[in-house]
Amino acid sequence: MKAGISKLKSRSVFLLSSIILIIALIMLSVSIFTKYFVQKYVLKYTGRQITFEKAFVNPFTGYFYFNNIKIYEYKSDSVFLYLNELSANINILKIFTNSLEISNLTFYKPRINIVLSKGIFNFNDIVSMYSSHQDPHFKKEPYHFNFFNIKIIDGHFFYTDDLVPVKFSIKSVNIESKNGWGWNTDDISAKISFLSETGTGGMNGNFGMNIKNLDYTIDVVVNTFDINVFAQYLRRYVNYGSLSANLDAKLKTNGSFKDAENSTIKGQLSINDFHFGKNPAEDYLSFDKALFYIKDLSPAKHQYLFDSLMLDNSFFKYERYDSLDNLENIFGKKGANFSENKSVQKHFNLILTIADYIKALAKNFFESDYKISKLSIHKGCVQFNDFSLSEKFSVEAKNFNLFADSINKNRKRVNFYVKSDIQPYGKVVVNISVNPNDSMDFDMQYQLKGLPVSILNPYLINYTSFPFNRGTIEVNGKWMVRNSIITSKNHLLVFDPRITNKRLTSDSKWLPMPLIMYFILENDNVIDYEIPISGNLKNPRFHLKNIFIDILENIFIKPVTIPYRTEVRNTENKIEKLLTLKWNMRQSSLLPYQEKFVNLMAGYLLNNPDEFITVYTFQFEEKEKEYILFFEAKKKYYLLSKEIKDSILSDKDSLKIDKISVKDPTFVHFMNNHISDSSLFTIQEKCNSFIGSDLVNIRYKQLNIAREDAFVRIFKKLAVENRVKINTGKNKIPYNGFSFYKIIYKGVLPVTLTDAYQRMNEFNNESPRKRLEKEREKIKNSF
What global pTM score does this model have? Predict the structure, then answer.
């Protein structure tokens, strides 16, 4: 009995082992045959070769597994897709019901190369192969496909567009779709996350779409995502330039791919560390952060509700050159690069796609229900440089702040407040009250004060040949605009303007400024005009009647007051010359009238053994170096063009060189022939490349030494130089537009200076200067 049982067990074990072995052999055979048939016939039917290292197929459970899979490009030996592992489960029973159901489809560490070449993707052959080419008259029940629980784990995707060109890649791509996609449903959804390959940051979120009507939902979080891909698309439209920034966002979007306006967006978006300019070292536009906090943006519903729109630490630079400006040099004249490329654009461009999307979102903004709870520009900077003149003009609105209270279409008025410093000197304040339903209906008050006339010297020299070395501009006004009709009062006040020596070059224009100043200056040495403006915004009318009347009055009144005005001017000049020593550009020796006043200072020290003076030097370094740069470049041009080998110039030659304009066509042509760098747009850059900055620095240092020697020489003659202390090295933009020495007397003031002060106080306390005494004192204390 025991022997029979033992024999039965042995047979059972043998049978079970045989079954297992048969199953294993079947599975092994199926796996081997699967690998064999796939690798043998897939190239024939798809045009693509597929290889893999191992294959495991369980025909009983439907589970399959492949590893080290390589799918090659169409009729090519380049790899299109590499998969470290691929696994899934096929429902065997469903196969017999005209269905294919695959679950737990997992792509592990896929590496895919997507290429767009001449408008054709490198996977178009696959799309075409699976497209329906069935005869429409042949009716057959369709085969049903169902995919559930799809995963992509740790993917690496590469995208190349050879026409733009663009190269971009993302890594750590993880996609999970539990519901997957089925033949009887139109909705697909997935969780998606990835990191940028070439820059910083990444994205994660949920995506859902109806593949029938193309409605979608996106819930996305973006963390410091590098926008390098945008810079690549931008290159198609720019002649040069660089762009960098990163994005942060937390957005919820519902919409339709068929209609951009039919969308709803909520959440927060910020663009950070934005830089766009000539190169990475020179920005034209930059900001630390642009924040958009969206409550409800829905063009279809005509709703644009924002909690905040804020711009922090922004910078914008606009420059004019002899030809075009800095923006036109990048984008073409009047943006020609964009307009021309867009008119023939047949290729996908991300920049234009986003621009069109934003345009669609902003459509009918002012006709919709809009609200911005907070609008602000904080610590902005706007810089303007004009290189089209014979010397550089530069001005800057620094610490520019704009704030608006709640901007709401339902409010009667919306108020904007603007405040900014003007560099190098001045301040501006603007208050605007606007009807939110009509931009042609607004009130405005503005005030510009503390602006030196000397800041305009590049224009004054160019158009009149006369620079100013004194004067302060104030402008204020009130505007009321209704239905674009202007009613305004504008007040121009220029305190104590004074012209200096004429500068005449070969192409400079000339106006008789001394005569003009005689007619427009009031007896208290100010220009004071009310200039009303009326008409409409497109065609304003300036009423200059007040100016003409004042000029006529001056013709008849001023001759009587000549003695008074002469005494005031002489007293002012005496005070100024005893307190400051002004240096003209490149001037290295004292002029006769300057020697006279320095002799007075030296005599003061000689007669007062216990007193001493302190001299503070204020150098207009930027402008001095510009003049040195131009002179040295013109000098080198002059020597080469005249074939003069001796670099020592006569006074006559120096005078000729001074009169050569840096805008002279012959000189400009010479510079262009000797400078091959097309990225140099200004005559300053070309001259610097021609002679080098080292020579300019040497000449500047020599100039300052020569000035100090010329000043101290007179004190040495009287042996009082040990009581003259010179503090050097203060470089700034002087209020009067010239380098100067400031004289401080320690102890009792010179009698000449005391008498001049007393006489000047008498003038200021009497008519006509009395009316603006406080304003003059404010200007004096400010600078």
Answer: 0.84
